[in-house]
Automatic annotation (TrEMBL):
SUPFAM superfamilies, alphabetized: PYP-like sensor domain (PAS domain) (SSF55785)
Gene3D superfamilies with a match to the protein in the record: PAS domain
Domain PAS intervals: 80-110
Keywords of the record: Chromophore, Flavoprotein, FMN
Origin organism lineage: Bacteria, Pseudomonadati, Bacteroidota, Cytophagia, Cytophagales
Keyword Flavoprotein included in the entry's annotation: yes
PROSITE patterns: PAS (PS50112)
Superkingdom of this protein's organism: Bacteria
The name this protein goes by in its record: PAS domain-containing protein
InterPro entries found in the cross-reference section: PAS, PAS-like_dom_sf
Amino acid sequence: MNLSDSYMELVNRGYSRAGSEGCQPYPALSYEIFLLDQARHKARQKELAQLEAFQMTFDWQLSRRQRQGYLKSLRQGATLVLTDPSKHILWASQSFLSMTGYTPTEVLGQRPWMLQGRDTDPVTVDRIREHLNRAESVKADLVNYRKNGDAYLCRLTIDPLHNSLGDLTHFLAVEFAIEG
């Protein structure tokens, strides 16, 4: 049974139940909204599981507070970007892809600098780079650019991630778009 068949089954079930109960059936659009919401929820759950799998696979030494913070950020719609120590993108959350307009194939292997442009403050970029070169956490507000060229202001936190041997294995960036 494909998605179209599932959708039609839900619509028919809704109309049948509504008719037998003597009330107005839900419009088909309600089912579409429901299905989209369910798909988003499943995708978010998959991303949460992926983040947990990364932690186990790479043996990141995260405190419970850090781990919960990353999961909470992801649930709240923050964008997450995982890079290797040389700062090449290995994974990006769906919210990152949605916010920037890029596809996974366009960002994987790239460096986050691809998001910078004309109004990105070079002093802030240098400060971020210096912290990362010392494997230190850094927070900053930065102007980034979507694929279509639109600028957006974001609040960025980047943490170095170390394994149980103390080796730097990755950086994890958490980004919230700042409305304004």
